[in-house]
Design a protein that fits this description.
single chain, alpha+beta, two-stranded antiparallel ribbon, 35% helix, 22% strand, elongated
Protein backbone atom coordinates (compact mmCIF):
# COMPACT_ATOMS: atom_id res chain seq x y z
CA UNK A 1 0.00 0.00 0.00
CA UNK A 2 2.84 2.40 0.80
CA UNK A 3 4.29 2.09 -2.72
CA UNK A 4 0.86 2.86 -4.18
CA UNK A 5 0.52 5.99 -2.07
CA UNK A 6 4.06 7.16 -2.92
CA UNK A 7 3.38 6.85 -6.64
CA UNK A 8 -0.05 8.45 -6.38
CA UNK A 9 1.17 11.60 -4.61
CA UNK A 10 3.81 12.10 -7.32
CA UNK A 11 1.36 11.99 -10.25
CA UNK A 12 1.12 15.21 -12.25
CA UNK A 13 -2.13 17.16 -11.95
CA UNK A 14 -4.91 16.40 -14.41
CA UNK A 15 -5.56 18.84 -17.24
CA UNK A 16 -8.27 21.40 -16.50
CA UNK A 17 -10.46 19.70 -19.11
CA UNK A 18 -10.69 16.57 -16.93
CA UNK A 19 -12.37 16.11 -13.56
CA UNK A 20 -12.29 12.98 -11.45
CA UNK A 21 -14.41 11.37 -8.75
CA UNK A 22 -12.12 9.32 -6.56
CA UNK A 23 -9.94 7.46 -6.49
CA UNK A 24 -11.59 5.17 -3.98
CA UNK A 25 -9.59 2.30 -2.48
CA UNK A 26 -10.64 -1.11 -1.20
CA UNK A 27 -8.32 -3.64 0.42
CA UNK A 28 -8.80 -7.21 1.52
CA UNK A 29 -8.51 -8.19 5.20
CA UNK A 30 -4.77 -8.78 5.02
CA UNK A 31 -4.14 -5.62 3.02
CA UNK A 32 -2.55 -7.68 0.24
CA UNK A 33 -5.05 -6.95 -2.52
CA UNK A 34 -5.83 -3.34 -3.34
CA UNK A 35 -8.61 -2.28 -5.70
CA UNK A 36 -8.97 1.28 -6.91
CA UNK A 37 -11.75 2.92 -8.87
CA UNK A 38 -11.96 6.44 -10.24
CA UNK A 39 -14.45 8.04 -12.59
CA UNK A 40 -13.12 10.61 -15.05
CA UNK A 41 -15.34 13.23 -16.67
CA UNK A 42 -14.37 15.05 -19.85
CA UNK A 43 -15.65 16.35 -23.18
CA UNK A 44 -16.38 13.35 -25.40
CA UNK A 45 -14.74 15.16 -28.32
CA UNK A 46 -11.43 14.62 -26.49
CA UNK A 47 -12.11 10.95 -25.75
CA UNK A 48 -9.17 9.41 -27.62
CA UNK A 49 -6.51 11.75 -26.23
CA UNK A 50 -7.91 11.66 -22.68
CA UNK A 51 -8.12 7.86 -22.71
CA UNK A 52 -4.44 7.73 -23.74
CA UNK A 53 -3.52 10.25 -21.02
CA UNK A 54 -5.33 8.21 -18.34
CA UNK A 55 -3.68 4.98 -19.51
CA UNK A 56 -0.24 6.62 -19.50
CA UNK A 57 -0.94 8.07 -16.05
CA UNK A 58 -1.51 4.61 -14.58
CA UNK A 59 1.43 2.88 -16.32
CA UNK A 60 3.74 4.04 -13.52
CA UNK A 61 1.83 1.77 -11.11
CA UNK A 62 2.99 -1.29 -13.07
CA UNK A 63 6.22 -1.02 -11.05
CA UNK A 64 4.21 -2.54 -8.17
CA UNK A 65 4.30 -6.33 -8.18
CA UNK A 66 0.92 -7.82 -9.10
CA UNK A 67 -0.55 -4.53 -10.32
CA UNK A 68 -3.11 -4.80 -13.09
CA UNK A 69 -5.45 -2.22 -14.54
CA UNK A 70 -8.49 -1.92 -16.75
CA UNK A 71 -9.77 1.24 -18.34
CA UNK A 72 -13.44 0.97 -19.18
CA UNK A 73 -15.72 3.37 -20.97
CA UNK A 74 -19.06 3.95 -19.26
CA UNK A 75 -21.80 6.34 -20.36
CA UNK A 76 -24.61 8.09 -18.58
CA UNK A 77 -28.13 7.31 -19.75
CA UNK A 78 -28.28 10.81 -21.27
CA UNK A 79 -25.08 10.21 -23.29
CA UNK A 80 -26.37 6.87 -24.53
CA UNK A 81 -29.71 8.34 -25.60
CA UNK A 82 -27.97 11.25 -27.35
CA UNK A 83 -25.75 8.85 -29.31
CA UNK A 84 -28.72 6.71 -30.36
CA UNK A 85 -30.76 9.72 -31.50
CA UNK A 86 -27.92 11.39 -33.42
Amino acid sequence: MQATVQIYICLPPLPQTVSVDGPYFQTDEGGEEIKVIATYHFDQALQSSIRTMISDRYQVFTEISGFTMAIEEWHSVEEAIDSWIA
